[in-house]
Amino acid sequence: MRILVVDDHDLNRELVRSILERRGYEGLQAEDGEVGVTLAQRGHPDMILMDLAMPRQGGFAATREVKAAAADERSPEAVAAELIAGARLAEADLAAN
Q1: How confident is the model at residue 76 (pLDDT cuts 50, 70, 90)?
Q2: DSSP states along 5-46
Q3: CB of 36 within 8 A of CB of 48?
Q4: Average pLDDT over the chain, rounded to whole?
Q5: For labeling, which of 5, 10, 35, 65 is most exposed (least CB within 10 Å)?
């Protein structure tokens, strides 16, 4: 399974990608919504973990764009979330292992 992680904070992206890859998933990364939309169209992820508040293009707008572009094709599952909280969980997970 290919999962695209879109977040403007490098540490958040790297933590989530690391956890995903340790569990056997392929992790793609994008630093903002615009790059995320491009990677979603080219990389065909199965799921997208999207930060909501990012410069240039936020998560809501990027998710709408990905869904609209994939209307004729298989659309990835898109999860818009504040990855800051997710990164804190990721840090806890890394510390536990």
Answers
A1: low
A2: EE-S-HHHHHHHHHHHHHTT-EEEEESSHHHHHHHHHHH--S
A3: yes
A4: 79
A5: 10
